[in-house]
Amino acid sequence: EVGGGVVVGAVLDPFGNRFGAIHNPHFAVPPLGATVVASRPMAAAEGALAPVGISLSVKVPVGPHAAWARWMSGAAVEAWLGVHANIEARIGGAWEVFFLPDAPLGARGGEGVRVLSYLPGRMLSFTWNAPPHHPETRPLFTWVVLLFTAEDEGSRVDLHHTGWPASGWSEDGTARDDSPWPETFAYFEAAWPHLMEAFARGCSEDRGGEPGDAG
Q1: Beta-bridge partners for 147
Q2: What confidence tens digit (pLDDT) does each residue in 38-55 have?
Q3: Phi first, then psi: what are they for 85, rounded to 5°?
Q4: How many other C-beta atoms are found inside a 10 Å radius of the C-beta of residue 101?
Q5: Which of 9-18, 60-69, 129-138 has the lowest mean pLDDT?
Q6: 27 phi and psi angles, rounded to 5 deg
Q7: Average pLDDT, stretch 134-144?
Q8: At a CB cut-off of 8 Å and minimum separation 6, what does 147 contact?
């Protein structure tokens, strides 16, 4: 008995294998078919958003559907980003990119990131986490929204990184010295332009190889 009605136990078999068990009367198994979106809590609990955000856009020489498709499969993301990606094109599916593939499990990059919503050819949103060297903010998710709009002979892709918790900033947007969140914000403020440049470059180098290039 460890408190709260929770009981744990373990046995050791003759071969040295340890088997542990736990009984937790408060645990509820999700209904069959339920979608689990976030494996970690969101940073902006109960919608308490800070008055800050990261927004940028790039123009690419492919239509919105082709641009959107380049974010919706692991192979496509690997082609333009150059790192391993695990992506499942479904609500609650993985949208994981591993910038440090040789690091220990849990410290490789986007582990646990999940798709929140999408409109084919128009929008994609997913959770996002801090890099491993930001241990205080990494356990909590922010989120990213991508918008795809036809423009001239290609499209414009707008990225918005939001979900920053109000606890990290004052009401006028001034960073709080006692919070680790402004440092994580500054990290992504510098990192996202490089990623979007890589995406735009990938579209320019391979502009005719996927369905939907006409928009």
Answers
A1: 123, 158
A2: 567 899 977 799 999 999
A3: -135, 145
A4: 10
A5: 9-18
A6: -80, 130
A7: 96
A8: 122, 123, 157, 158, 160
pLDDT at residue number 214? 40
Please state, in angstroms and rounded to a whole number, the distance separating the CA atoms of residues 130 and 106.
12
Q: Quick one: average pLDDT of 96-115?
A: 91
- Report residue 22's pLDDT band, with 50, 70 and 90 as the boundaries: confident
For the record, the structure tokens of 56 come out as 């940028």
> What is the residue-wise DSSP string for the chain?
--BTTBEEEEEE-TTS-EEEEEE-TT--PPPTT-----SS-BSSGGG-B-S--EEEEEEESS-HHHHHHTTSSHHHHHHHH-SEEEE--STT-BEEEESSTTSPTT-SSSTT-BEEEEETTTEEEEEE---TT-TTTTTSBEEEEEEEEEETTEEEEEEEEE--BGGGB-TTSPBPTT-SHHHHHHHHHHHHHHHHHHHHHHHHHS-SSSTTTT-
Nearest to 81, CA basis, from 214, 211, 192? 192
Residue 10 has pLDDT above 90, yes or no: no
Q: CA nearest 131: which of 152, 109, 146?
A: 109
